[in-house]
Here is the input.
Amino acid sequence: MLEKTKNIAKQILEEKKADGVLGLMKSRWDIVQPHVFEKPGELDALVLEPKWLLAKLFMSILRSYPEDYRLAVICRGCDERALIELTKRNQIEKETLLTIGIACSQEQAAICLCDRPYPVKLDAGEIASGADPFQDERVREFLIGNDKKRMEKWANVLKRCIKCYGCRNSCPICVCEPCKLEDDVWVQRGAVPAEMITFHLIRAFHLSDTCVACGACQEACPVNIPLLYLQLSMRKTLKEKYGYEAGLDPERKSPILSDFFKEPETGREYPEWINSLRGKDGY
Amino acid sequence: MANIVVFLCRCFGEIDNTIDFDLLRKELSKDTSVSSLSIVDSLCLETDIEKAAFKINESKADRVLIAACSILSRGNLPVNGLIKEGMERHKIGLVDIREGCAWIHNNDSDGAVKKAKDLLNMGISALQHKEKSEDMSVTVHPDALIIGAGPAGLAAAASLAKTGFKVNILERANAPGGMLRLISQLYPTGEDAANKLNPYIDEVENNPLITLYPQSKIVSIEGYVGNFTVQFASQGKDNSIQSGIIIIATGAKIFFPTGLYRYGEIRNVITQMEIERQFLKGSFDVKKTVFIQCAGARNEERPYCSTICCPASLKNAMRLAEEDPGSEVFILHRGIMTPGNVLEKYYRDALSRGIQFIRFEEERPPRIMGDDHVESVEVYDAVNGITRKIETDLVVLSTPLVPNDDNARLAQMLGIEVDRYGFLSEIYPMHPLETKMDGVLICGSARWPVASDQAILQGKAAAMKAVSYLRQSEIAASTLSRVPGPKSGHARVVPDFCTGCGNCVAACPFDACHLEKTKGRYISKVDMMRCKACGNCVSVCPNGSMQIPEHNYRMVGEMIKWAF
Amino acid sequence: MGVLESRTQIIVREVKMNQPGILVFACKWCGLIGADAAGKKRVSLPARFRVISVECAALVETDAILRALAGGIDGVAVLGCHIGGCRYTNANHASIKRFELLKDLLDTTGIGGKRLLLSFGTAHEYHQFEEIIKNFFDELAVLPPLDPWLSPFGVVS
Here is the structure.
């Protein structure tokens, strides 16, 4: 997989399809760091491990480089989904996005609890089958079970929060400036730990239809709050009700933005419990 | 902090006997933003409003809080009265302490007074953060554009010209008249279709205010009410018109039932339009005829009744019986639809002339027998349960009206919707002939299958609705609310904060938001003529840069904070 | 009253003493009519609810609902018009989808999706409004209290 990726990247640089390729480099003293490769010779130091999420770095590099710089990126499944979500939100131009897709191994998928450990545009590596997060023990403790016990469990975990904003800063989708989490109408200023309902649930709900489950928030959290588990049931609902997964289709916008005729629930006309005036045959 | 004057209305004791006003007065006097508090007996009479306005001017306060009954009963009277005296709408707040508090908590006065205190707190904090939204107005082009020159379009044009407005008509064919040109006589009077149509065609040709563009094809439509720009090509020449409103009268088309009842396979199985064409040429000779109703309608694919085919069959059947008294006519039906007293009499006339009616079921349709031309029809009579074989020379199929093929394209150009069958849909629930876009009206069979008399009536009605827009010289965006009273505001975006995500563009039901690229970033802009302040864009905006100023998030947050 | 204090602590203290409190967002065209009709008929309702009137249920932001729950309010009700009956052409469809997803999130964390009541098209008669409010109070009384989620540690300055 590494050789094939190196060859593809070299080809891109030689054919001048892009001015630089963003990937991981193993430099002196075996230190791994992200690097923009501009000459084909540099690609000998390319590595693909460990898992390093490059989507947010891609955005900030593009902002500081000159405007006509074309950047290609080596990305895993979750990276590519994040980049496609960003193109849907008009932060990246779709035509200039060039990706080299690599697949994650089964071990990596088990660590990340990912059920789609490969990008849609796959260039190197083999597709692994992925892991179902709802089968994992730790996830089940937090998401399934007695209501009262779960509420106390979540409250105990969330009260460790020191309001470092690491989760928001590392999320590839979060681009809003100013952010609602810094507004004193919603989130109390100077309150530590962060108010649980307003800070965490506002953040979780704003990402409900765009979260790509990359796990960057969880990895960035210094006190080990399982932030990824907050999103899992909403992603499952969107998939079951509307057949929608964030980041798969660059043409389809989130289904909760449109009405029932443009984005109906699969297999049903209207939700059952709602009293509706228009019956099956229209009025 | 704003200076607020508070009026508490006792409503002649209705509110007073449950809620202790002295307690309220004591609590509110501790509030630093309340500059004065008055308790009055009533606020809805004219003298009360004058006194209140005087007091407000005297105390030089900027905002007013009124605690009285609900806005749906008499609470809007002081609000509107103060606006007439010169106060601005966003500086007046109304709190409901009668229907919302005193009358439903009449057995719990402690709870009621606490609730009144909290509601007043919410009202005060709401007033301090309410802002005013912008408004724009557009000069109205006093011309009308009608698309389609069938009976509906011609009637609309004649009415508009009579009222004195200039009318342009775009017609797809090379002569006006629509489907009425292909019909010989009309029901129930039996008059010639040309008689009905000719006065309107004369009006169109002779009236200098009406211009007809035949053979035209629409290229694009842009703009909003008061200022639509339509580009089209007519008789080979490109052209562009500006108009204040658009009336759509494009009509519908007949459904040709290929495959049903062996239509197209053997001879002498025809549709109603073909028999009309035959009548237009002159009478013709046929001894036995069978009409089959609901051919291609009221089934799973098109579960609607097309309203005009049953009376049309009766008309043609009676004409055949009249021209040749010895001929036999059968009508096979699944229920004859002739509502009203005129059409009911028409039906009884048909019965008395010897036309025979046989009812069949949907699951057992009649079968056409014959090799290269029709010889007989076999039908299972559902009323008396026997299968009858009828010898016939001609079979006429009554087919429904179906929407035009380019309805969807026209609707998309204008920004209006089509319903599940493909006809143009009007807004629900209360505004007949109006569509989602202000200034676009629909009438005639483009909206739903109707006969020509109804189409003419709808055309005239649409013309009158159009006059209500055209007679104004300027339309302000805040008056386009479709109810008495102005809109509650317009959505407003702070351009520096907008990330350009496009959520508002996707969520707006009126297509009022669009993205513009400035300095490498996308920023959303709101078209105030289309915005109706529903608030969808506000809820989907990720960082709150889109707000409705009269209901912004700071106001809501403060109201929630002081709610209990 | 004009002084901005740390309201979360005060609200937590008050709610602990009394029965549950509800915040109702009523749409001006359907929900408010039900509330008004209940008033005209003089039905008796418990006093612990407050009504905020909005133009359309689509105007209710999910962040406002979360802010209300964080402030100690036990339940939030959103009253809107029928599907197909919204006078802003189906603006309430998207809001229904959004609120159902929010119910999911509240269920996940154990707060309970039951604390958010959605009633679209069933609150414009006085007895319907009465039923909805009374049933909501009964449901909220049996739910476990929100105390572990409210901020007990106060303000660090």
